[in-house]
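Q: Hi! First time doing this. I have a protein sequence and I read that you can turn it into a structure. Is that right? Here it is:
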Amino acid sequence: MAQICEICGKGALPGNKYKRRGMVKSKGGAGSKVVGKTLRRFLPNLQSVKITQKGTVRRTKVCASCIQAGKITKA
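A: Yes, that's right. Below is the predicted 3D structure, encoded as structure tokens:
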């Protein structure tokens, strides 16, 4: 099953992971340099919850922001 929220459709977003070398200037160094970039995926905070949808109870993957916003009714 895909990593997608059933309510809002929030899914994985692409991004980068940066590898840094050197001490930052605020700590007395010459500054940190980026020496490598790697692709990564930012995944949504999905929870498997039982919800009532159109009168039936079913288990779906819903993101935490939809649960906090009250967009679903738990069974």
